[in-house]
């Protein structure tokens, strides 16, 4: 069976992708960011039966030599490692360039040295900025409305240039907002869900009127795997989106029904992005991914969204302690 190398494997999407690939019988080498706690992040949440099949190596995508050595004997590379928190990108933009742009160059050059068959590079819908045309297809202009978005535009352009200049075999997947179990509480859906789970009387939320096109994490991962199996390797870009957007207010109302709990909804100014940086509406077209990658997302339309939101809510009810423990420890 093919050997797969995954950067960012211990993160939210990476851990689901790792789990899905291991369960499908692939050999997976998980590249976990080195840390002094020996933490393997969300990989520790995977059933032990599958966890022990994962070949875990520690490293950092800013270190090309380590990447090059760690990638030996692998066939495919999924590159997910990145700094992703938009608010922190306002505070520390240079670290986003170093990790997301230079890190991507390191991953691609290391993959070339190791004669990797294909690199599946992860972009994001944030590269489009606020929609100028609905639905957003892959030809929509790229607008860096935050340092995070700018760094991901830079990373995508590095990938495209390495393919055009040196024939690096790359396919680019561009997921729209992804949510599900194991996501950081900084992301919008877990922020809201966790407050419902903790039965807060007042639920604090940022911009209630912005809307996003949400993918359930299972669908995002199946899109990654379709990209790996496809014939594409000249840095073609494929949106992964459900094709329907939901306002944050609407999600809050759905959660009132799912949780049978009716808290006060309070707009917290601290959670609102600077005006020109706010992306008001994202809704994507995944026509190309469906047609050429044969991607068939399962959780689509309002029914699919409610089902995936309910699954996520239930997971947080069962696992909120993990987050509680961490926030006590680090006083976040
Ligand atoms: N979550 C979303 O809604 C979403 C949407 C579109 C695209 N994406 C992209 O998907 C990818 C994964 O995002 P996620 O939501 O799982 O985030 P995440 O923060 O959970 O995962 C990112 C992982 O990258 C690792 N990482 C960061 N810096 C590193 C370094 N220097 N060396 C090695 N590893 C490093 C982190 O440890 C983390 O495990 C990212 O590239 C992100 O831009 C996410």
Short description:
This protein has helices spanning 12-23, 48-51, 64-70, 86-91, 93-113, 147-166, 188-197, 217-229, 248-259, 287-292, 301-330; strands at residues 3-7, 27-33, 55-59, 76-79, 118-122, 170-175, 178-179, 202-205, 211-213, 215-216, 234-240, 245-247, 264-267. It has 332 residues and is α/β, with parallel strands linked by helices.
Q: What do you see in this structure?
A:
The strands form four sheets. A seven-stranded parallel sheet has the order 3-2-1-4-5-6-11, sandwiched between helices. It has a two-stranded parallel sheet with strand order 7-10. A two-stranded parallel ribbon has the order 8-13. It is an alpha/beta fold. Helices cover 42% and strands 17% of the residues. The protein has a domain at 3-183 and 215-243 and 282-300: Rossmann fold (3-Layer(aba) Sandwich). The protein is built from eleven helices and 13 strands. Helix 3 (64-70) crosses helix 5, helix 7 packs parallel to helix 9 and helix 9 (248-259) packs across helix 11. Nicotinamide-adenine-dinucleotide binds next to helix 1 and helix 5.
Give the helix proportion (percent range): 40-55%
Bound molecules: nicotinamide-adenine-dinucleotide
Continuous helix count: 11
At the first level of CATH, the class of the domain at 3-183 and 215-243 and 282-300 is Alpha Beta
């Amino acid at each position: 069976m093919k050997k797969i190398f995954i950067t960012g494997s211990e993160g939210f999407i990476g851990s689901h992708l790792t789990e899905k690939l291991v369960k499908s019988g692939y050999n997976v080498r998980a590249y976990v960011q080195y840390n002094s706690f020996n933490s393997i992040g969300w990989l520790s949440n995977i059933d032990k039966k599958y966890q022990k099949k994962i070949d875990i190596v520690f490293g950092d995508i800013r270190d090309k030599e380590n990447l090059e050595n760690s990638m030996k004997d692998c066939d495919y590379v999924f590159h997910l490692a990145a700094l992703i928190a938009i608010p922190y990108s306002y505070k520390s933009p240079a670290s986003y360039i170093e990790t997301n742009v230079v890190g991507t160059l390191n991953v691609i050059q290391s993959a070339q040295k190791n004669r990797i068959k294909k690199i599946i590079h992860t972009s994001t819908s944030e590269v489009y900025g606020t929609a100028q045309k609905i639905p957003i297809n892959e030809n929509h202009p790229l607008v860096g409305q935050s340092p995070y978005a700018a760094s991901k535009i830079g990373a995508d352009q590095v990938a495209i240039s390495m393919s055009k200049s040196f024939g690096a075999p790359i396919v680019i997947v561009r997921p729209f907002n992804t949510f599900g179990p194991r996501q950081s509480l900084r992301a919008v859906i877990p922020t809201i869900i966790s407050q419902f789970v903790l039965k807060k009387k007042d639920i604090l939320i940022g911009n209630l009127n912005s809307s996003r096109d949400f993918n359930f994490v299972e669908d995002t991962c199946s899109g990654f795997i379709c990209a790996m199996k496809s014939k594409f390797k000249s840095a073609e870009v494929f949106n992964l989106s459900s094709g329907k957007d939901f306002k944050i207010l609407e999600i809050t109302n759905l959660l009132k029904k799912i949780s049978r709990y009716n808290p006060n909804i309070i707009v917290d100014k601290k959670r609102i992005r600077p005006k020109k940086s706010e992306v008001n509406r994202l809704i994507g077209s995944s026509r190309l991914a469906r047609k050429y990658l044969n991607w068939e997302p399962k959780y689509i339309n309002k029914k699919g969204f409610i089902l995936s939101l309910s699954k996520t809510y239930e997971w947080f009810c069962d696992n909120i302690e993990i987050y509680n423990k961490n926030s006590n420890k680090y006083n976040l």
